[in-house]
Amino acid sequence: MSMAGTVRVPPPVNEPVFDYAPGDPARAALRSKLAEMSGREIEIPLIIGGKEVRTGDLSTCILPHDHGHVVARYHLAGPAEVEAAVQAAMEARRDWASWPWEARASVFLTAADLLADRWRSTINAATMLGQSKTCHQAEIDAACETIDFFRFNAHFAQQIYSEQPHSPGGIWNWADYRPLDGFVYAVSPFNFTAIGGNLTASPALMGNSVVWKPSHSAVYSNYFVMRVFEEAGLPPGVVNFVPGDPRMVTRVVMGSENFGGIHFTGSTDVFRSLWQDAAGNLPHYRSYPRIVGETGGKDFLIAHASADAEALVTAMLRGAFEYQGQKCSALSRAYIPESLWERIGDQLVEETEGIAMGDPADFGNFMSAVIHRQSFDKIAGYIEGARNSNEAEVLAGGEADDSTGYFVRPTVIRAHRPDYRTMCEEIFGPVLSVFVYPDRMWSETLEQVDGTSPYGLTGAVFARDRRAVEDALHSLRFAAGNFYVNDKPTGAVVGQQPFGGGRASGTNDKAGSKLNLLRWVSPRSVKETFAPPTRYRYPFMAS
Ligand code: NAD
To answer: Domain locations in the chain?
Structure first.
């Protein structure tokens, strides 16, 4: 239908976070959803061009905290299905790209409202089961952050579309914010359900179509995101859901001449290889692909001697151990002055030892299992290395038990050298390394923080002395894309702290902001002249 009017999206507000306290009706609803979903096994098809596709080549979705427990079997794409997904995306694109932008926005605003209510307990329960998140961690990710992405991005898209060039007398200049001239490949990680939602929805909002390869370890929750898209009215083929072998899917997708861009979140090495693959195929592509990737981190906290001790310990515990340290923003190296360490060291160890860990369905737990065996083995290897090293000591935790689930106790390592490997390398688990520095070495320690790792994702300074805060803001300007003053380095909120880092942490295209959406448009400048000249001679040519 054609309509007249300059419409505006409802002003976005952040989705309120439910607290699931005893007596809260949302707690009862979530508990019953958990029981229902963990008690049955579902089958997850591929979704290509809006159709369910079953290949019979099956893999399983298990609970990381109870790895013998299967909640789903899912079909894996082969090369033919990936090819079909690329074709479906290219076909859907023609119509979708010509929709009025507000109609596209409406689909994602509808998805947000479905997630806020009818689908909330399902998406949270799926994330608690398949990715071992506590109810709070699932709530802030799967429900709230996904909803915030959809609502705020609609608002940012409106801002982009309303930015139009200057038009002096006699002409009218327009910006036509076209989508890319091809499809977008979205490759999502296991650790945030919201990221799968955003990697697909943000290019789609701007008129692109998408081939989505979710992480093997998040297929369960990601499938429900896909179902929400469908229920919200997303046309067939705009997003195509194709779990499968990552290398094979990538080879087929990037082999298409219509590959228009990649929207990736995951580890640094994988992103580098994807960029190289795209570069290698460059002569074959119709356009230069847009490459957007948010990758690894080695997130830090530096405390000044003036820091508030209680606030510091709380930030360290929450920053390092929530979601088992598997947030890209998780605190993993802390620099504490000697005078402060004398006051907080024992408390940090004691509180770490007291952390409750187990099945997320038991709401008394603060932590649960790490995602899979590979991760469990890697984390346990770092801890074992620290135990056997004379350059570090394990002060708290350190136990790892994979008999039922992939459980690693929250661990504090004291590094005796600032370049000990657990101070430098991304571990992606519940391991916090602490380096205790002489109080007088504040400036040198700031330099150390900046130069220790190749990443630049998140970081924090704790100080009551404002001069120290200024020192850190200045010295660490390029060490983190998201920087916190007297707060933990995790928990960025869409619309408030746009997220992303530089250096080896990504292209810093700031998920949940206008900057990200700009990567998914290829503007056309149009000049219209009202009364074009009718003679070719210029006045200066007159005799
Ligand atoms: P991962 O790199 O193992 O996987 C990410 C995605 O890439 C998955 O879909 C995976 O199947 C796919 N993949 C893996 N190997 C591939 C290959 N050879 N070719 C093509 N695709 C491939 O990461 P993960 O374990 O899912 O997530 C954890 C990592 O993600 C950490 O490094 C973390 O720092 C990073 N992360 C970063 C951010 C950020 O915003 N910077 C956010 C979340 C996670």
So the answer is: 79-295+506-526, 299-485
- The answer to whether 527 and 171 have CB atoms below 8 angstroms apart is yes
Range 442-469 average pLDDT: 98
CA 149 to centroid of ligand 1, rounded, Å: 20
* C-alpha 185 – ligand 1 centre gap (Å): 14
What's the alpha-carbon Rg for the chain, to the nearest Å? 25
Q: Which ligand 1 atom is the nearest neighbour of the CA of 511? A: 40
Number of the ligand 1 atom closest to the C-alpha atom of 371? 25
Contact status, residue 294 vs residue 506, Cβ threshold 8 Å: yes
The class of domain 299-485 in CATH terms is: alpha beta
Q: Return phi, psi of residue 473, to 5°.
A: -60, -40
Cβ–ligand 1 distance for 457 under 6 Å, the answer yes
Question: How much distance in Å is there from the Cα of 26 to the middle of ligand 1?
Answer: 32
Would you state the pLDDT for residue 3? 78
pLDDT, tens digit, 9 for 90 and up, residues 351-404: 999 999 999 999 999 999 999 999 999 999 999 999 999 999 999 999 999 999
Report the run of H or E that residue 299 belongs to, with start and end.
Answer: strand 299-303
Residues recognised as catalytic: 294, 328
Is the distance from the beta carbon of residue 190 to the nearest atom of ligand 1 less than 6 Å? yes
Q: Decide: 15 in ligand 1 pocket, CB within 6 A.
A: no
Give mean pLDDT, residues 320-329: 98
Cβ of residue 329 lying under 6 Å from some atom of ligand 1: no
* Residue 506 Cα: closest atom of ligand 1: 41
Q: Are 206 and 517 in contact (CB under 8 A)?
A: yes
CATH superfamily of 79-295+506-526: Aldehyde Dehydrogenase; Chain A, domain 1 (3.40.605.10)
- Its pTM stands at 0.98
Q: Which two tokens stand for residue 317?
A: 């515990």
- Report the nearest-CA residue for atom 35 of ligand 1: 266
Q: Does 471 contact ligand 1 (Cβ within 6 A)? A: no
Residue in 328, 370, 425 to alter for ligand 1 test, most ligand atoms within 8 A of Cβ: 328
Contact call for residues 370 and 399 (beta carbons, < 8 A): no
In terms of DSSP bridges, do strands 210-213 and 239-241 run parallel, antiparallel, or are they unpaired? parallel
Directed axis angle between helix 101-116 and helix 193-205, to 10°? 160
* pLDDT band at 1; cut points 50, 70, 90: low
Q: Mind listing the pLDDT tens digit for each residue in 294-310?
A: 999 999 999 999 999 99
